[in-house]
Structure prediction request, 615 residues.
Amino acid sequence: MTVERPFEMDNPLWPLLATVKHPSRYIGQEWGAVAGLNGSGKPTVRLCLAFPDVYEVGMSFLGFQILYALGNSLEGIVTERAYCPWIDMEASLRAAGLPLSSLESGTPLNRFDAVGFTLQYELTATNILTMLDLGGIPLRAELRGDGDPLVMAGGPGALAPEPLAPFIDFFCLGDGEILLPAVLEALSETRGLPREDRLARIAEIPGVYVPALSTCEFSANGVEIRSKQVFPVKRQFVRDMDSAFAPRSLVVPDTGIIHDRVPVEIFRGCTRGCRFCQAGMVYRPLRERSPEKVVEIARHLLGKTGWEEVGLVSLSSCDYTGLVPVLEALSGDLRDSGVKLSLPSLRMDAFSVALAARLETVKRGGLTFAPEAGSQRLRNVINKGIGEDDIRTTIESLSEHGWDRVKLYFMVGLPTETEADLAGIADISREAFAILRKRHRRAEVSVSVNGFIPKPHTPFQWEPQLPFQETESRCRGLKRQIGNPKITLNYHDPRQGFIEAVFARGDRRLANVIERAWNTGCRFDGWTETFRFESWMQAFESEGLDPHFFATRSREKDERFPWDQIDTGVSREFLWRERGKAFSEDATPDCRTGKCQGCGFLPEECSRLREAAEE
Ligand code: SF4
Prediction:
């Protein structure tokens, strides 16, 4: 069922399109978009999925596509979409007195039963307020009445949700394939009941956190959250990727987006154990999709959408045990049809010469690697299990196979970092260039540097972030050290990383700061051109909160964190143990190939544990 609502000339949005950049963001009508109800009768729930960033970013998230297809596959449910309008469109909507509405039917957000935000990163907080406000929904959950939609949020940001808690009615913790149907069923069952009663029913769903049922007490030992809900709230996850819901159709944008391709998820979770990586901790345990299923999904979606690229996506695609059979099965089809295959998230150790050669059988995408740190010592600290030789041989292999460009990702400000570690980044970059240059006159190396952000639910959740001024100075120094115009070095504004760290580990008091910053014009804080650092600093000052308390402070071992009410499956004891091993520069092997490291899962939850028991 594709969208039937024509973009008629009397649509009030139409004149505004001439006033904004990228009008295609607001038109909808894409191939694969769904209008109306699956089934007959009246819808029992109308859900608007809301992505708090621009269309091109939101459309690139596979999770958003999965939720959209899943919602629309359920009987009695209407699922539509809205993305955050860019600043020019926000101004035009306000000037015209028009609400933010869904792309599919042009329904204002406040006329849905529920609005569901995807929280992919911390710097979208003010965009959530923009969408609520423009959509006619009171910003604070406590100000909403029975006629207002229930506002929910999911995604990795929901696992440390407190700064957003006053704006969100409930958070869904874990995989949407499990949570969305359960939530929609509860919404349907409680239709017409008072808001409070609906929330009480929703709070019974495993994996759902309702902040309004809780209060916070702040003390020197952190924050104590007391709730009528049973704590901790356990993150929910699909056990078997083959039987998990997979979309049979995708929305194909009419305009360029960030990742313009068919995304096929090959596995979820990661057991490498990089100590800085939140995704590697919170998406455990590892769950692979079978090669047969991956190939079937890829072929089906390529045929259905006409996309010219297929991406085999995961946290570390080279670790997929079914990679060779999948590439063998797909290479022929792709070569014949000119479709490009991409493998995002390549690891330097696992990227074998054989795989590079295999990728040559199809059109090649750009290659990006993440050594993360400049020395073996620091890579041991962060448990990035790759050696100098891995880096060298991978670049040599790429060069031999015809690549003349490589992009390298590093972090600055990791715990224990020294001058020597920074010098190592410059050395690796120069050596990569020298290797490529031997064969290729147009050799290029681009280096991307991010300031380290200690994230919740990781072994570094207790660690301070480097002051942003120091991060800036180290990045500048690195640029000087590299000293080769053919090696470009870019780094993100460390002040944005600072604000991100504040909200990543912040508590409920920060909601006032978010609202104040939004009121003074903060929008799209993850975008360099719109980021307003001074406004944020003023907002902290006005609320009497010191941002350094959240970002650059070391925590004691037993401090109560604002995310302690959430159980991702990985235990705090494991994280503390890993932190200790980091400071001893002690590696933890990948439990996929080695023995279980006791991260917290039970045999019925972790297939690796079950396999080990069977052996
Ligand atoms: S429980 Fe053991 S085998 Fe399973 S993910 Fe954790 S460390 Fe790995």
The mean pLDDT is 92.
